[in-house]
Each structure stands twice: as C-alpha cells, then as structure tokens.
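TL;DR need structure tokens for one chain.
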Amino acid sequence: MKNLMLDIPLWVSSSFPIIRIVLFAVVVLCAVLIILTTLFQNEDSNSSDAILGQQESYYSQNKGGSRDHKLKVITTISAIVIAVCVILYFVSFLIYPIGA
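>> reply
TL;DR here they are.
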C-alpha cells in the first residue's frame, strides 16, 4: 500500500500509534456508555391499555420523558462519536501504514 503523505515530519509519524490507541479507547468508552444508557432507558411501549382500549394522556406518556430523552441524546451522541472515531482510525492507516 502506498503512503499518501510524502514528507511527514518525524513527530507526526511517531504520534500515529498514540492517536490510534486514544481513538480505540474512546470507542471502547463510548460503547460502554451506550450499553449503560440503553439499559437505563424505559421500555417504549405502545401506550395503550390492552384491556380497556384506552390511550394514555399526554402527561402520563411524558412524565418520565425528560430523563429518557437525555439518555437517548447521550446514546445518539455516543454512537456518532464511535462512528467518527472508527473512520478516523482507519483513515490513519491510509495516511501512515504500520510498516511505513
């Protein structure tokens, strides 16, 4: 595989292994965060009573929504961070391969 950067300074080429370790650690931490936030979220139900056929009111549907909304936002942000870190991790191999 051809090296995409022709004249890389020494400090840049020596920092790529450290950057890869940091990116990998961020992915692992975000994965643990996603697991925890999904476990703490309430189960999304159909919000209708199967016996009486009643729909829940707006207030009863959203009484725990602020906490669940925050957990969903944290989950989404963590997933985006994972995606960006994985892309940067593999781009770092394109810029500076291990054997170069």
